[in-house]
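Async update (no meeting this week)

Hi team, since we skipped the sync, here's where things stand on the single-chain job. The sequence we agreed to prioritize is pasted below, unchanged from the tracker. I ran it this morning and attached the output directly underneath so nobody has to dig for it. Comments welcome in thread, and please keep replies under the output.
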Amino acid sequence: MSKTLYVKYGSADLATAMREAVAQLGCTVVGELPVQFQPHGVTMVLVLAESHLTVSTYPEHRHA
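Output:
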């Protein structure tokens, strides 16, 4: 994914991209936790039956 995705879009778009990646891997999501930070940034955790997937964004540094 492009770093600009996390700067340009919000947690809903990040969650969708993560769910699509998990589905392509054939894994099962059993829970999710989005955390929106102020003034910007988000951390999304997907708990999988097999493990977990976590993405944190740092838009002030243009990183995810």
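Quick observations from my side:
Strands lie at 29-36, 42-48, 52-56.
Confidence is low (pLDDT under 50) at residues 1-7.
Reply here if anything looks off.
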